[in-house]
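writing this on my phone so excuse typos. first protein, seq and then structure
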Amino acid sequence: MTEPILKQLLDSVNLDYTLRFDESGRLYAGFQYEIEPDVTCAFTASVRAHMLQFRAHQILEVPILESDLWKVNELNQRWGRGAIYYNGEAHCYEAHAGLYIGNDTVLPAEVFEVLHNLRAIVWRLRRYPACLMQSMVSPYSFDRFFQAEYENLFDTGVTLAAVKETLHEMDYAFIQLESVLAQHFVEDDGNEFFVEFFTIGNRRLVIRARHRDDQTTQADSHVLAQLHELNSQFVAGSFVLQPASGRVFYWAALPLTLEQIHPALLDWMIDLGATAMRAANEIS
């Protein structure tokens, strides 16, 4: 089933790709994507757990520096559409972004929007180190990119009230704390975590998963390196370390319409948060 879905989605935006299988037998498509005139980057696409995931490879080949890892951690805390991570084997930065495809119809414009978003990340990372500088003036600055992205978002009609109503129909016990819906989970295997839902201006539905406030880790380069490894493996969103508190959380901001808010989606998002926190438990 994966091949026809993947081909249909990529053909809808007229990509020239080659289908391959990775070492685990998972199907993916490889292609070159233009970042700017006559400059391309190697992209791959795959369908994983109700997501169409695009991945940009070998964006920036640089030595690993702790200062850069912290700056990328800050970027992941602001992006939400995917993750930027350091590939230690290839000695370079890479990134991924995805689109939820669990609904009945995926429009070509939605596929193109994810590609365009990831392309913008690649374009800026290749302006290293200027892209990591705090600036609202430089066109290479991520500060300017995130500000423009928020301003350009269109209202999809997603409201916290609609999410809350659907969760209650599913017999979840989420409570509303100001503009956040939250529930504490304890699984049979002892995995304990909180899942929170909130919206970004009726434009994005956000899931955030975290441990208890007293469950912290060392805020150092060793932990950061482990988060980059987790971000390289995950299907959507990103893991982030808060340096002041030593707390790790996972979050993903999905561009969804009101019509897409249904039980299957919310169950999938909660499972995503549970899986993320289970992975975060292994950080040492």
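second protein below, same order as before
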Amino acid sequence: MQIIKRLLPGSEEMALALVVWLCTLPLIALVVAPLLGRQAAISIAIVVSVLVLGACWIRCLFIVTETYLRERKKQNG
């Protein structure tokens, strides 16, 4: 697990984003689908996934940058 954390910093955030998106799918299916139809529910699910993953990528960018700078500082002393 330490190897994954070292090679892919922010992987926990990506997993959390996936779980959050999966948890929103039943809500979308139960609320949006009956009101707006199946096509709208699918579209909203896709938009939510893009938003959640976009937020995750932004968060991961900061984590990777911070990790890189910390490692670089260690190497330069």
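The chain has three helices and no strands. thats all i got for now
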